[in-house]
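Bit of a strange request maybe. I'm writing a small parser for structure token strings and I need a real example to test against, not something I typed by hand. Could someone generate the tokens for this chain?
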Amino acid sequence: MAPKRPEGAGAFPKPVESVAPDVPDPARLYAALDLGTNSCRMLIAQPKGNQFHVVDSFSKAVQLGTGLEASGRLNRSSMARTVQALRICRRKLEKHQVKSMRLVATEACRRATNAGHFIAHVKRETGLDLEIIEPEEEARLAVISCAPLVSTRTEQLLVVDIGGGSTELVWIDVSALDPRDRPRAIMRLRRGFSAQGSPFPAARVVDWISVPLGVATLREQFDDVEDDAARFALMSWFFEENLIDFKPYASEQAREGFQIIGTSGTVTTVAASHLGLRRYDRNKVDGLRMSSDQIDKVIRSYLAMGPTGRRNDPRIGRDRHALIMSGAAILQALLRSWPTDQLSVADRGLREGLLYAQMAADGALEDGPF
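Reply from user aminoacidic:
Good idea to test on real output. This should exercise your parser:
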């Protein structure tokens, strides 16, 4: 399947999670649910200043896209697992009396021929209204959520969101902006990738692409390759072949002033492995900068472990061990393609963007300094 690359998009922003007060006001609560190819994740939060507090959260590896690559359909067991997880989400929403929410599904439901049946089934079984969003919205939400991690020294920015079924890449040029205003300019993309109508300067989106390969779908493509190292190499080169239509891939890029931000379970897992965390700590991972050598060292250690070693490594976790090498293959292809010595790690993404979008639309967030 060829990558999807529309001409433009609209956008929305970010926040930083923290602990909420003991008794939040239900009238000020918002929820965001992200149902992907591999995971079902939800945040419930309330606005505070120009950010938000997280009140409750949920995350479960439901593997909704299992077998989708071969059949083009969501299978019964995957749908049953997902509905079970969504029932838990519904109970949390009812417990907190959340009225403002946006519940979205991404690549697996975009591709499945029986997605309409599944969405209707979810509504009957849980009462939840799932919305299938397009790749362009998924991309812009990921970009805005990463705005706080943009360096004032950055002139060219690549934001990468590695999902279960697809990978979104957005290339942004902020070289014409005042360095102090560059992170804030990324936030202004919430009005759209063109940011028309804003009295303030905004970042320029050079190009973006949605590659229909994520950690689950890429792994399924090469499931018949028995040798672990060979499968990893094939996955990495195959992913890179899908970047040909991305404008910045074909042109030479300067190393100085270039920043790449990665947001995904793959990136945060690699960061946790680098730090030697036996128990995941978001405060240590989010915003961490890793050198390409450090990332390469972690990936090499994964290969040296083999499937059994990765399955038993507490830094990787039982939910991610089967997919970490396909994610690492994507990450290696990106680092091979562009001139960077560092990667900024983002433990944030679609859910944060969804929350910010709702709060901003309601005027619930302050317009203070970024």
